[in-house]
Amino acid sequence: MKELAIKVENVSKEYRLGMIGGGTLKAELQSKIAKLFHKDDPNLKIGQKVYGKNEKFLALDDLSLEINKGEAIGIIGHNGAGKSTLLKLICRVTAPTSGKIYINGRITSMLEVGTGFHEELTGRENVYLNGAILGMTKEEIDECFDEIVEFSEVGQFIDTPVKRYSSGMRVKLGFAVASHLNSEIMIMDEVLAVGDVNFQNKCINRMRRVAKEEGRTVLYVSHNMATVKGLCDRCIVLKRGKVAFVGPVEDAISVYVQNEKYDNTSYFDLTQVKRPSKCNLKHKLNSVEILDSKNGTVDYGEKVHLRLSWTSKPEADKLKMKFIIKCVDLTPVGISLLDEINYTEGENVRDFVLDTSYLIPGRYAIENVFYNEDENGNAEYYDRCICMRIEILHSDQSTKLKHWFKDWGNAVLPCITELS
Fold first, then answer.
1. What whole-number distance in Å separates Cα of residue 1 and Cα of residue 319?
2. Largest CA distance in the chain
3. Of 56, 68, 237, 316, which residue is most buried, by most CB within 10 angstroms?
4. Where are the domains of the chain?
5. 8 A C-beta contact, residue 185 and residue 6
6. Is 251 or 396 the better-scoring residue by pLDDT?
7. 101: CB partners within 8 A, 6+ apart
8. In the prediction, which pLDDT does 115 show?
């Protein structure tokens, strides 16, 4: 049986709106007098809402989840979903309104750039301060100090006060401290958004290693789906303070991006799908059907037979089409083009073939684009939307090396040929 690292049990967090004061006695008196004489509050910003005394906001609503020791867990959701609130509760920065949280182990966290750093202390002093807060002895910190400095890439400035560090330098040192000190649980909230690309990759590899090899638990919050997919074993999707989904990363990203659970199907009704405002809908796609699949799955290396139904208006011109193949996080993988489609005014039904033989097994979102181009390459967009989702199944040929998309991408290129 797996050992639990974190257990969240029926936790709610409630905030009372508008209860923060003006900051000074003068501002408080001005606001009170204005309210007494039924005048506008002089300390309110333009457009700021005035909340009543009893108005409340439920940041987390009866939330329960379990996280096992040694797991790398992603937590995703739209702004205001409750991600940062949940992490603050786990880190004991604030207390829940109701419910209980059980923690098995010591926690290091970065909830924002430079969390826990003292501005006036040097980088060296802050490393020892953070370690002491975690309950580590000076000897334990001494053992990993050189590794922390080397990983952080700020060795030249380690004896400089942190107040003179750039935001990127703070992230580097903060992450190095959090990932090297002897704690059982690492919590990261959007901290890699500031670092450069090379350092982000180094951090992802470090978090993956501490989870897999050292058996530590990692909680990672980010809006960067590529880093979530590259690091995490499971993913939690939060929506309005509740758990909307817990499961495989690709499924979770699909729920987050599409706002719906990934459900294999072969028929897609697009009549109610919202289109971008720049589309004039002279040609409008109504539905897509995958003809040779009952549940939206395709064997690796096979072609997909599609039946498209669309409506063309009288004023429509030449029609071109392209399919943009994307990962479930909507990162583009490839494109397939058709230079011209024959159509008639009104309803049209045509069959097409989409070649997916270069894609690795996995789940994909397909975006359809109806458009036309003039002689200067200027595009007129008729219609554009995510029209279907497919799943490419793994091949049974055990002699082939399994493609590792995290390192190699989602496309399998043709074999190398030798020139004679």
1. 59
2. 94
3. 237
4. 69-258, 267-408
5. yes
6. 251
7. 6, 7, 8, 9, 11, 89, 90
8. 64
- What's residue 192's pLDDT? 67
Which tokens in the block code for residue 56? 């409340």
For 234-273, b/e burial (b = at least 16 CB within 10 A) is bbbbbbebbbbbbeebbbbbbbbbeeeebeeebebebeee
Q: Terminal CA-to-CA distance of the chain, rounded, Å?
A: 59
Quote the pLDDT of residue 197. 76
Q: What is the pLDDT of residue 252?
A: 87
Phi, psi dihedrals of residue 307, rounded to the nearest 5°: -120, 115
As a residue count, the chain comes to 420
Of 6, 130, 148, 25, which Cα lies nearest the Cα of 69? 6
Residue 233 has pLDDT above 70, yes or no: yes
214: part of which helix (H) or strand (E)? none
In this prediction the pTM is 0.67
- Alpha-carbon distance 340 to 321, whole Å? 7
What's the CA gap between 420 and 418, in Å, rounded?
Answer: 6
| pLDDT tens sequence across 175-196 | 888 778 778 888 888 766 666 7
Structure tokens at 100: 């209980």
Does the 69-258 domain belong in CATH 1.25.40.10?
no
| pLDDT value of residue 300 | 83
| pLDDT score for 352 | 93
CA distance 184 to 105: 5
Class of domain 267-408: mainly beta
Angstrom distance (rounded) from CA 339 to CA 336? 10
Please say whether the beta carbons of 125 and 119 come within 8 A: no
**Number of Cα atoms under 13 Å in the Cβ half of residue 358:** 14
Q: What are the phi and psi torsion angles at 271 (to 5°)?
A: -65, -30
Distance CA(77)–CA(222), nearest Å, equals 9
